[in-house]
UniProtKB/TrEMBL annotation:
Protein name: Universal stress protein
Annotated InterPro entries: UspA
Domain UspA per the UniProt entry, residue ranges: 147-270
Domain of life of the organism encoding this protein: Bacteria
Organism: Pontibacter oryzae
Coiled-coil portions: none
Length: 292
């Protein structure tokens, strides 16, 4: 059973805040969540001398906390125990990573605007530095989640994400699909038959699936799809499968190769994050990776 001891919701005082707070309520209504922290950092380096001269000694932190409190009261409505945290630090990523450690945050919720409105630079930094799993909610996504897609490459990270996805879908009565995108060593064509290479590649992958199902019998009945990259990136094939299958949530396992807080995001998750997807992306680190 999936239970979240503590969740952090990152707010930036934009129009997406109301959506994030409402979505956090939806999460609390579906999963056991003990406490939610609504956080915002006032980047002190961006407060110009003109601002300070014009507004004087106004307590900006208190004003922002009041604004967030109004949004929480309207859209969260005490769905779980919660607290509002407003800080004033020069580096937003660092203070958020410290909050994750201080309050043992298991899941962080961040919003994402379409590429024509934002570069997404802060989001990418947060994904790389936060020592916890992250749920990315695009501004165009909705709360109705019924069908989940989990791509796997048979690494420990992807298997962890798959098992979490299975627990989630069983718990909430959702549908789950597995996807594996494979590539062929095209540099050897036409020395070997392309048709033969495809057949052999799929045989190898099916053997891997069979072995995986034997080791984790809870996923034995979950349907899986094999897709050849065929000139497209793995991320592009994943997005095509999302559209084809009308999935509502993408769950990705993240690999950690460096000590926290410099967790390794990986090229496929980075590419997917930078795409204009219309569904939430749950990027999952295992506990073993986070404790490294």
């Amino acid at each position: 059973m999936i239970a979240i001891d503590s969740m952090m919701v990152c707010l930036d005082l934009s129009d997406i805040d109301e959506t994030l707070v409402a979505f956090s309520r939806s999460i609390c209504e579906r999963l056991p969540v003990k406490k939610v922290y609504f956080v915002h950092n006032i980047k002190s380096s961006e407060l110009s001398d003109d601002f300070r001269e014009f507004f004087g000694d106004v307590d900006l932190g208190n004003e922002i906390e009041g604004n967030i409190s109004d949004i929480v009261n309207e859209h969260f409505q005490n769905a779980a125990d919660h607290e509002i945290l407003v800080s004033e630090e020069p580096n937003t990523e660092v203070i958020l990573a410290e909050l994750v450690k201080r309050y043992t945050i298991k899941l962080t919720l961040i919003g994402k605007r379409m590429s024509d409105k934002s570069t997404g630079a802060l989001g990418t930094k947060l994904l790389r530095i936060l020592p916890c799993s992250v749920l990315v909610f695009p501004e165009t996504a909705n709360f109705n989640i019924a069908k989940v897609l989990t791509p796997i490459d048979f690494s420990d990270a992807s298997v962890h994400a798959l098992r979490l996805s299975k627990s989630l879908t069983d718990q909430l009565g959702l549908s789950l699909d597995i996807l594996h995108v494979y590539k062929l060593p095209t540099q050897y064509f036409p020395l070997i038959s392309e048709e033969k290479a495809i057949r052999k590649a799929e045989e190898v992958v099916k053997e891997k699936f069979s072995d995986l199902q034997k080791r984790h019998q809870e996923i034995a009945g979950v349907p899986y799809t094999l897709v050849r990259a065929a000139g497209k990136s793995i991320a592009e094939r994943i997005t095509m499968q999302l559209e084809k299958g009308n999935h509502d949530l993408l769950v990705l396992g993240l690999k950690g190769h460096n000590p926290v807080p410099s967790l390794s995001l990986g090229s496929v998750p980075t590419e997917l994050y930078n795409m204009d997807l219309n569904i939430p992306i749950w990027m999952v680190y295992s506990e073993d990776v986070i404790k490294q």
